[in-house]
Every structure is written in C-alpha cells, then in structure tokens.
Design a protein that fits this description.
Elements lengths: L20 H10 L32 H5 L7
C-alpha cells in the first residue's frame, strides 16, 4: 500500500545558492533516490543578512524563530 507523508519544513539557504524556493525543490527532487517527488503546496522566500549566531543556525530551533523572517517587521 502506498503512503503520503506531509512534511512542513524550513530550508535555510545560507550560501544563497538558490534564487527561489522552487529552484531548491527542483534540486532536491533531482537527487531523490526513490520514485516519489516533493510537490510543495505553499512557498515563500525572504532575504536576510546571515550570521552564524542566528537561532535558525542551531538544531532544535522553534517554528516561531523561523517565522520571524516572514513577518515584515524585523
């Protein structure tokens, strides 16, 4: 029996390798070793100045920390 998994995640592009979220998804899909693919339902992209000390650069970061980058008042 087939399964579908819903995974909500944030992908931080610290090196600015991808111009858009879709480019990032395309890159991931091109490297999947199984017969599935990732089809995002919603995508947003925001630019910001990277710093190694940011909370989003640490394991276990909360959803709230990521969401700060999608609010216009920073």
């Amino acid at each position: 029996m087939a399964k579908i998994h819903k995974i909500v995640c944030y992908i931080v592009d610290a090196n600015n390798d991808f111009e858009t979220a879709q480019e990032n998804i395309d890159y991931i899909n091109s490297r999947l070793k199984f017969g599935g693919n990732i089809d995002p339902v919603e995508m947003e992209t925001e630019s910001f100045v990277w710093d190694d000390d940011l909370a989003i650069n640490k394991c276990g970061c909360t959803k709230e920390e990521y969401e700060k980058y999608f609010k216009k008042e920073r």
